[in-house]
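Crash report, auto-generated. Payload:
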Amino acid sequence: MNEVVLDCMGEACPVPLIKAQNKLKELALGDLLIVQIDHSCAMKNVPEWARKEGYNVEVEEVDDGEWEVIIEKTK
Amino acid sequence: MSENETVSSIQRSPRSRASTRKPKVNQIPFGVLLLLITIGMGIMLNIQSSNLALFFITGICFGFILQKSRFCFTASMRDPYLTGSTSVTRMVLVAFAITTIGFTAIKYGYLQSGLPIPGMGYVVPISFATIIGAFLFGIGMVIAGGCASGTLMRVGEGFTMQILSLIFFVIGSLWAAHDFEWWKFHVISKGKPIFLPDIFGWFGAVIVQLLIILFLYIAAEKYQKARTIKDQQNN
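Recovered output after restart:
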């Protein structure tokens, strides 16, 4: 099981989502993708998209205004 | 975000689990201080003019709701395409429906008491300027990572990149104001302004507009369902 960290600090809204979408395609089943973001908008649309796709998602606020979205590629 | 708790905990290797995490500073004292400053400013503005205080409070409330609800007009137009989710789109439609009723009530109230209707200067014809403007705005807001309200909100949140957006947002607005006369004379004034209550009557206009919004709402919901099924099949 791999853990891939995707650094999206300072990236504005649609960019973290697109990066996460592309990165997740490359991952193998069971891998974890950790998207680091500091844009509040991405905090909403990245988890929403991943949940809609049916992956396990967790959001963690690692610091004030910095989040890690953990996506488990379950299928 | 009650959904977070229901999702089963994902196991991560302990090494990566926020070993770099700094202890968080308690923000409550800052919040209390800010609230006191806000109230103080409100009282000070109220001494000058009660209108100013009202604008100040409305602005603060608007910003607060915008930030807490993650309300984003950009996302409402972009997410249906990118993620297939229309939750923000529907949120905007609900907001439109509420403002439709509110603005009609205000305008009708003025009409009833024989006063000039406020905000009629914003009833302008649809023209090519609308299309060109919308297209340019669309490009700009995707690059800048937010529309006007979103940019302002995130500058307040401390997202430094969008301070840059804000600077160019001001420059762009000034430029637009400079060129506006040209557009007004050559493009906008060619059309005929349409004010719905003139055509359908006041009551009819509200009904027509709400029906259109309802139709868009249902369409948005149907679209999301269809997209979810399609996306999950593709995986």
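Post-recovery validation: DSSP finds two helices and four strands in chain A.
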